[in-house]
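User: Can you predict the 3D structure for this chain?
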Amino acid sequence: MKPIRRIVIVGGGTAGWMAAAALARLREGSDLAITLIESEMIGTVGVGEATIPPFVEFNQLLDIDEREMMAAAQATFKLGIQFVNWGKQGDSYIHPFGNYGYPIDGVGFHQHWHRARAAGDRRPIQAFNVETMAAFFGKFSRTEDYNRSGEYPPVNYAYHLDATRYAKFLRGYAEGRRVVRREGRVVDVALDGESGFVTSVTMDDGRAVEGDLFVDCSGFRGLLIEQALGTGYEDWRHLLPCDRAVALPCAREDGSPPAPFTRATAHSAGWQWCVPLQHRNGNGHVYCSEYMADDEAHDILVNNLAGKPQAEPNFLRFVTGRRKKFWNKNVVALGLAAGFMEPLESTSIHLINTGINKLIALLSLEGISQAQEDAFNRFTIKEYLRIRDFLVLHYNATAREDSEFWNYVRTMEIPDSLAEKVELFRLNGQIFREEDELFTETSWAAVMMGQGVGMQGHNPMADRMSAPALKAELDTIERSVRFVVDRMPSHADYLKRYCPAPETMPVAA
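Assistant: Here is the predicted structure, written as structure tokens:
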């Protein structure tokens, strides 16, 4: 076990600078040296502009001022994701970040709602969720703005942000804590002849950068984890067949304010994202090349923008899946170097975040052990598999028959783990979350119900409460949600007061 005194991060972008900012905290009280290598000549993918609530905690952990970060990254608030045309063409639903109601007598809210619905209560389940209703009316507030007594439902939120600007913001944070940035490309990797560990990387100017632990943030190439160590890759295209994307920012020429939610609109062979920033929209079309050509995908995207494109289209190719190991010897892969799952549920930045969290939790500066590597890989594989299943649900739970693509995903064989979840929900609305699974009971219920997976019955424990008592409980929840949303300002007004970004800032490529 060789002590860790030098950490080298290969690659910048969101993954590299998130890692640098978080690891910089380890420098306090130690002689640890952290170096990040990146080249301005190598572009970043830059399409991961939507986040989920745990990302808020990441920034809080670094003591980052939320207002300052949001203004620098032209960020807006995000309450959930709207899915359009997924179950059937013309359908729409929101996957909210907060819960539907709250458990009653230990039984999930959607169980009680189903009982009331069967008895004639016509209120949609969305009426009992503050994030959905605020998103629908274009409003926003943080919990601390109105809920000091704790008697009203909290607001769970994340951000839409310009990933390139966010990385630049973190660069300033990390360099201010003595992380050293080196400009240039890595052209060679040296391995120890006995252990197989990476000992150094050579840059294009001939300089060698030695390290004890290497963090691979080199993107799809996997410069260290794959090209140097030959780790291997598990291909999931049989379950998530989209393998292309085209990204394109645009202005909002219709004068509409930025919505407090991400929109994912399904098309004939994939889907389109719309991420509203303060002064533009981030857009992209994820599609399957087996069923759609690049030109057609580009035309569909351009014809569904809110304004004129502000850059040239960025075409991306990817293979959905994961590395067979995320930590191999003394290399830890983060971001696209670790694997790729399309940004359908905004999990790209989240997986960087949790990868960093696991690395810091397991890391010992006394050296690297097999136990650390094994634990990191086991935890990360579980996380990837659970997210994969949730994404597959969006495609498989559909009634669409209008294209070969939808016919394939609707009828494909799905993992047993997902098939069991769907069957249990269909039977009586039961949802089992395993260990520290990312997606909540409401998340699973929102997507299943939103895409037509109906509950045939409900948990009999929900029948214990009398009908009048249940109605009173539901009325109270609905009134609380309405009270909070009615008093919220518009999302646009909140941004203007809280974290305005200068309109003169140049658009990131």
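Residues 504-509 have pLDDT under 50 and may be disordered. Residues 370-396 form the longest helix (27 residues).
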